[in-house]
Amino acid sequence: MRWSLSAPIRVWTCLLMLLAVLLASGCSDPDTLVEIHGSTMGTTYSIKLVELPLSLTADTLKAQLDARLDAVNGLMSTYRPDSELSRFNASRSTDWFPVDPELADLVARAQSISALSDGAFDITVGPLVNLWGFGPDAHPFRVPDPQTIEKVRARVGHDKLDVRDQPPALRKHHPELYVDLSAIAKGYGVDQLADLLDRLGATAYLAEIGGELMARGNKPGGQPWRIAIERPDATSRTVYRIVTLEDDAMATSGDYRNFYEKDGQIYSHTIDPGTGRPVAHALASVTVITENCATADALATTFLVLGPERGLALAESLGIGAFFVSRVGDDYAHSATTAFEASVSEKGLRVSHLED
């Protein structure tokens, strides 16, 4: 997939993962946790298990995890020219293109989020991201002229993509339509790791890919996993809040690590498909907690595109647990949905300052 993280972004991601792991481990004896690490989707993954499933070693489990992730990439990667999604993108046909049911299902899930968000989430937005200099075709930053933006927008839009399940297939309305699942795929990968661990009999673990997480059960000692929500500050790496999770997924989207500044104006890597331009609101990050990580991943991006008012309103209407951090001058303010607060209360979880 075009899991295209620049080298600095990968470094920051790894540092955040280290912070999350330290928080997740808490004060428990590290020897009581089994840790498995690997690379996937242009970033890293990690698994922390209270104990290995019966009859498995760490090496044999890692081999199974790697095989599952490799299968996902074989369907959905935009870096592998022979992947199913790459072959669909390369095709200029507007006829139905047969695909694996797994790929059709994830595209359908993405399309449903596009529909409920009125297009704020859009897996066809990649050409606009690249136009603004944030995609894989790196070039010196420049503000595109309006005519070029509109020309690229003509081949972007979730309404230009069809998906069906019987028989599974995708179809373009524009021959140059390009599908990129990066905004949902890390979360989907986490779900696949969690599903495999569940089927193997693991009952307590923390699974993570590039910052998207799934927590199952409790840490040694019966305590829930503790995860950091980062302060959305481009100049430092500090914790804004800590969330404790149990049998939930969590994903965060932010605009503060990947941006350009020109003539005193900040241009975020988050592109609004409706305008073809970087978002320009005060919302800096969104954290979503749901039962599966693919949904959390996609909705975090959706709410970030929509902004603090529209994003919060949509999250409330959907009953989604979401935590929003916005810039207020040189400081930050946060808000949370009713579902987020209820989840914290009902599950005995909490959102706290690091020093609490």
Mean pLDDT: 85
Low-confidence stretches: 1-31, 348-356
Strand order of the largest sheet: 1-2-6-7-10-15-16-17
CATH topology of one domain: T-fold
Helical stretch tally: 10
Helicity, as a percent range: 25-40%
Fourth-tier CATH superfamily name of one domain: ApbE-like superfamily
Coarse morphology: globular
What is the strand tally?
Answer: 18
Per CATH, which architecture of one domain? Orthogonal Bundle
- The value of Rg in angstroms is 20 Å
Description:
The structure is a single chain. This protein has 356 residues and is α+β, with helices and mostly antiparallel strands. The protein has a domain at 78-182: Orthogonal Bundle (T-fold). The protein has 10 helices and 18 strands. It has an 8-stranded antiparallel sheet, sandwiched between helices. Strand 8 and strand 9 form a beta hairpin. It is globular, with a radius of gyration of 20 Å. The protein starts with 6 loop residues before the first helix and ends with a strand. The model is unreliable at 1-31 and 348-356 (pLDDT under 50).
Structure described in brief:
It contains 10 helices and 18 strands. With 356 residues, it is α+β, with helices and mostly antiparallel strands. It has a domain of 105 residues: Orthogonal Bundle (T-fold).
